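Risk mitigation, structural track. In case the binding assays with FE2/S2 (inorganic) cluster fail to produce interpretable data, a predicted complex structure has been prepared as a fallback.
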Amino acid sequence: MARHVIAPVDEMPPGTRKFLEIDGRPIAVFNIKGEYFGLMNRCPHQGAALCEGPLIGLAQSKDPGEIEYTKLGEIIRCPWHGWEFDIRTGQSYCDPRRFRVKAYPAHVEPGASVVKGPYVAETIPVKVESDYVVVEL
Ligand code: FES
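Fallback model:
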């Protein structure tokens, strides 16, 4: 699995999302309360740009007249017909057995491990031979 740098952490504060195309695939990366998640930005229903929909919570009810909201800001609602998906897993709440959005792992890595600076100094190979320093030009 190839790694792709998305953005510096300070450009993606909690509650934000970023859209990209990686290897021809539309991807959205979300920062949900400091955790990062990637989703395919294509709704499995009719192909809308799923991740451009609103972030909502999950409404559940144990008894008639009682509604509990959980997962606030963790569910994406498709902007075309309102299907809802869990950003953490891609699971559909319309028909979980048939529909799922591909989820991609996203996380933070130290900058030094993923980004090389653009400037490179000219280097010259140097060897030590019998107590003499030798420079090869
Ligand atoms: S295209 Fe997403 S719900 Fe229809």
